Structures
1.
Amino acid sequence: MKTIVEDNHLSQADDSLKQIARIDGRNLTPEIFAQKYRKDGIPVVITGLLNTMNSWDLDFLREKLGEQKFPVRFNGWERYKQDKNKWNNIGSGVESRTLSFNDYADLLSSKEAHKNDIYLGRCALNKTPLADIKVLAEADAKLGLKMPGTSPNLWVCPGSHITPLHYDPLDGTLIQIYGEKRLVLFAPSQTYNLYPLSLFNYLRHGLKLRANYSQVYPENPDLVKFPKFKKALAHRYEVILKQGDILFIPAGWWHEVTSMGDGVVCSINRFWHVLPLTRAATSWNKWRLHLGALMTAPYVIKTWVAAMFSKDREQKLRHLVQRL
Ligand SMILES: O=C(O)CCC(=O)C(=O)O
């Protein structure tokens, strides 16, 4: 069930369409943002803070990142025809290959990335020339975001890529830099109407198949198998993120992200520690993942020992660390 707090703030937008409110960031102060959105964990789109930012098209990214190496996920489209319970990896658990940015950009230009759903997803920007962008730091300051849980991450993909329905244990800001994304969101209260993957997957697949992902395809749900999803549909929010928009996604909020168009789409995100601590401490979605992390111990130890004795030890250890 939605809480009253969620309802009040979200209804700033047209509630019949269940859209997330859009607010002009130039009128915000850290205090207003904390009071209206962060304290209770209410998603919101903040506009107007990135007007002076360069357009991060493929040429710009090639110029800045060129030969820098990144892990690139080779998803393929076949998996989307299957029951998600049959997948043996998801999100950052998908097998990645290390490519230079230029090589990945070639896959995008030739449409190979579109054909095989190849994603440069959640790649840390620290140690790159794009690590410290003044206008992004100013936007963070305007929102009073001071305790990062990660460095800024780059997400570059072919239009039509879908990041499946999931939630994160930290607050996030998703910043749309080039092209557009459509997000479908559900409040944390809907978790059991969204059929999260079982925690027991951690024992078998470790961090490759995390329990913060839903078994349901929200755009094409199997209502016979997942009947409670009908209830979640009454609580479905949708937002289109345009270039220059910042979406605040509070910890525990479910979201599926679709990149729009048939070109290239680029975003940055960053995760933030959840404040106030009372919200963190009372988030069951967060605790579920901590429990899951404990359950990965046997898999992580087994994989670590195998990596230590393997010929490509460095690569295997790097993959393991990337998933943590
Ligand atoms: O943009 C994407 O593909 C995923 C982003 C995301 O899940 C997030 O920012 O939390």
2.
Amino acid sequence: MSSSAGSPLPVRIAAGQYALLPEIARTRREENLRFLRMIQSVPSERFDRVALPIAQEQTERIDCTLCANCCRSVQPGVLPEELPVLARCAHMEVTSFSRQWVKKEAGTGIAYLHQLPCLFLQENRCSIYNDRPLSCRDYPHLQHPGLKFRLRSLISQYSVCPIVFNTLEALKEAFGFSATASPNEEKK
Ligand code: SF4
Ligand code: SF4
């Protein structure tokens, strides 16, 4: 694995390489933060015009059944109205299900499934696919306008999700970001 300063671009992660994501993310942490800083000067609407089609294209290229990283490492949010459905899928009463499988974020009170890997993951597939929570359907949240403002949280998923990884690398390319340029050169 080369260092971030020497990493060639563009880079895409392919099926069979997903285990490399955490290490690559570590080596590119500073690089990704420099990209984030560079993009601050790009108007949000212009960023979306470029970024949303790229995200769509990268999403279509990945087969999630060969990955399931998010189901192993991201605790999905659960809406109150989703609890009865999830409880039914687990063949449990809502109260028992909530007690065993749901926690609430301190401060926000947002409920989430705390078990990792997710209790509904079987092999690499969601066993409740048609009933999965909205937050699972939406992940990795690339399809909504205002992507620029979510870039920091997306970078946190760079080590998890191949779609995020490939989208971010494609964005670096599209916006002419150089992994080797000094911060001063990027300001020019
Ligand atoms: S509910 Fe399904 S899609 Fe959501 S984390 Fe669990 S296994 Fe994955
Ligand atoms: S959304 Fe991302 S992390 Fe989740 S299964 Fe698909 S490619 Fe993997």
